[in-house]
Design a protein that fits this description.
With about 90 residues, the protein is α+β, with helices and mostly antiparallel strands. It is about 30% helix and about 30% strand. The chain contains 2 helices and 4 strands; from the N terminus they run H-H-E-E-E-E. A 4-stranded antiparallel beta sheet has the order 1-2-3-4, covered by helices on one side. About 15% of the residues have low confidence. This is PepSY domain-containing protein. It holds the Pfam family PepSY_2. Keywords: Signal.
């Protein structure tokens, strides 16, 4: 009887991971994207401390801290640099 419980736990874990899925950013030609190094420099100039910076689909994704020291996860449009989705810990 332990197998059905394990399956239920795994299904629930998958469902919760889906709830925190990434953002949907508009697709742009790669030659139009802000260069990663330039964008990271811009973000640090705005006070962000970057722990992880990566491409997630058509978005740039930042994990780190904002200028107030709060943990952030932010998805940015790769051409405009505008935030598309963000989560900030209180």
């Amino acid at each position: 009887m332990k197998t059905p419980i394990l399956v239920a736990v795994l299904i629930a874990a998958g469902a919760s991971a889906t709830a925190f899925a990434g953002a949907s950013c508009q697709a742009h030609p790669k030659d139009k994207w802000i260069k990663e190094a330039d964008f990271k420099k811009q973000l640090t100039g705005q006070g962000y401390q970057i722990k992880t910076f990566k491409v997630d689909g058509n978005c740039y994704e930042l994990y780190g801290k904002n200028k107030d020291g709060k943990k952030v996860e932010i998805y940015f449009d790769t051409v405009s640099g505008k935030p598309v989705k963000s989560e900030i810990d209180d």
